[in-house]
Amino acid sequence: MPAKDLDQIVNLCKRRGFVFPSAEIYGGFRSSYDYGPLGSLMLRNVKEAWVRTMVQQRDDTVLIDAAILGPPQIFEASGHLENFSDPLVDCTVCKRRFREDHIETRDCPQGMKGCAFTESRAFNLMFKTTAGPVEGSGADVYLRPETAQGMFLNFSNVLQTSRKRPPFGIAQVGKSFRNEITPGNFIFRTREFEQMEMEFFVPPADGPKWYEYWCKARLEWYIELGIPAEMLRIRAHDADELSHYSAGTSDVEFLFPWGWGELEGIAQRTDFDLTQHSNASGQKLDFFDQATNERYIPYVVEPAAGANRTMAAFLLAAYDEDIVNDEPRTVLRLHPRLAPYKVAVLPLSKKDTLTPLAREIYGTLAQRYMCDYDETQAIGRRYRRQDEIGTPLCVTVDFDSLEDNAVTIRHRDSTEQVRVPISSLLSEVTSILGF
Ligand code: ATP
């Protein structure tokens, strides 16, 4: 049973240290969030799972990490300075600002009577700042609104240094910034967020084939990591939603408590980006195919996902409540790869006699996995706590362990307990987790 509403996840995140409102001691900074001890681990796991699938397990892709700050030329060529804007309306009565495409009627979304909207106008979503030591005389720079431009700018660098040839991909994971008019729904839409993007360069004729391929592959990624297929769908954009250069775009959507929402967009961007940057910079951004003696500008298929939004979806889908030993419990049925901790080591009592052995076991497991160690409270409460933060396995060290050199592994999902010799604990854990 996935979370019924967003509040269940927001509360759990706050209570257990996944996500905190940013700058809380100063009253909070609207729609900004800090990822706490567990959330930072989980967000990292989401990004690592993406890199694992998109880079580690393929020999046709590479990873880069490009600059966040960029000169205006990049965004002039990319079209962001001119086109990266939302239609915005102001309410002349309540003074609030809305995205025109987010209001369904001319009634105020705040439910206020008598609201009157202005004509819509374009509002550029890029954050601008200045670089340089003297106030007022610095050069204009922008915070990137997507990671994608870094891949286009480094197309030639990667081609020359990595021995890749189309079809090949350049991937990147990192922060992007958009001055969203209506951020909200927790970490779904924020002004600062992380993207996981791939620009996949292909011979022009192969664009449609690779577009199909990536739509399917990306949907499967979410299912493999535990989101039920019925909570996911692929939605192809209508012709009037497409950007002028796009030969087709589809979104992977997740059934959020408020309805279907985008997790990822997969776009056929043709040769638009490389052509634009080539024209603007005067540099050739093309590929010479020695086999056919042909020179061409590759077409691009771009799967672009958001790490934070995806993390919210994984949390919502994993949330469950059930009854164990006549008591209700909350359990996050997270895929082990996404769970902040893989194993929690729990000595049955805080007695000194158990601590050295429990510490030793923790030390061994922690060489390989992110583990928790907890010797506070009664064991039942500690199990509940680990269930609620999604830890797949608990290892309990008890007084018998000192005699029989064995410990108990408790499974989060079934609460089943099995006794295993300490000597085979690591291999046992590895085989249960699957990595
Ligand atoms: P939306 O229509 O929801 O604003 P978008 O279509 O503008 O999203 P893209 O430009 O395709 O988004 O960006 C790719 C991915 O980056 C999105 O699918 C989403 O997961 C993530 N993303 C974009 N904007 C935000 C944001 N403000 N906060 C969190 N994630 C975002």
Can you describe what's shown?
There is one protein chain. Among the domains are: 41-71 and 145-315, Bira Bifunctional Protein, Domain 2 (BirA Bifunctional Protein, domain 2), CATH 3.30.930.10; 341-433, Rossmann fold, CATH 3.40.50. It has helices at 6-16, 37-56, 72-78, 80-83, 148-153, 155-162, 207-224, 272-281, 307-318, 355-366, 379-388, 401-404, 425-433; strands at residues 19-21, 33-35, 61-64, 69-70, 85-90, 97-99, 121-124, 128-131, 139-143, 168-177, 192-202, 232-236, 249-256, 259-270, 287-289, 294-296, 299-306, 319-324, 327-332, 343-347, 371-373, 393-397, 406-411, 417-421. It starts with 5 loop residues before the first helix and ends with a helix. The longest helix has 20 residues, at 37-56. Strands 3-10-11-17-14-13-12 form a seven-stranded mixed β-sheet, sandwiched between helices. Strands 21-20-22-23-24 form a five-stranded mixed β-sheet, with helices on both faces. It is an alpha+beta fold and 435 residues long. Adenosine-5'-triphosphate is lined by residues 146, 178, 180, 189-190, 193, 195, 262-265, 304-306, 308-309.
